[in-house]
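One-letter codes give the sequence; the fold follows as tokens. Both lines appear below.
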Amino acid sequence: MTAGRYFAAALALALLGGAALGGDDRLSGFDFLGPQTRAMQQDDMSNPGMLSVLDGEALWNRAAGAPGRSCADCHGDAAASMRGVAARYPAYDEQSGRPVTLEGRILQCRETRQQAEPFDWESPDLLALSAYVAHQSRGLPVETGADPRLAPFVESGRDLFTGPKGQLDFSCADCHEDNWGRHLGGAVIPQAHPTGYPIYRLEWQSMGSLQRRLRNCMTGVRAEPYAYGSPEHAELELFLMARARGLPMETPGVRP
């Protein structure tokens, strides 16, 4: 351990409270929520993320681009055609030979099938359409990573998860594997199983993607965040979802 990393670890442990939880049972971020936030996520009338899902439904049925084609024109009723799809993402993309995230696939369809102006990464429209598609898988187990062609990219994602980053020389695993269940800055450290994305985060007062959350963590350890849509984000997201395989999808999740 470098001197900087030792200092950072000592500083972080000084901020931590409570006892480390033992065992290797995998938990969703939902399991670390207080009762009020749990109730907010579970009640569709109170879950603020459902507004984004409704916006996504409208986008799904709205014609766009030169052909005047909507998502529904190709895929039909999302409740049937998109059931279970998000639980398999990031998925292997034949054209690029790499993993593609759900947001990346939506952008591909928008550009190639609809011939429409692509949404910006992290835009309300892309979040809404992603949330609507992912919502169709709510309650189904995550299946990401089952495709053997993804195996080398899962390992790349694991390396990104365990590799130290930034001026604080911290890895994702330092918090989410070694210290989950403890507190940092008054917040419980979850196990980093991203089953509810896109999520409504109370801190943000808005919806956000997993990539936005990962960029927040990187900034927290004073690292240069990966760009939205970068290969590193896809590999890290792939590893995290493969690590969560079997846990139920929750989109739209609500987090503090």
Remarks:
- Residues 1-23 have pLDDT under 50 and may be disordered.
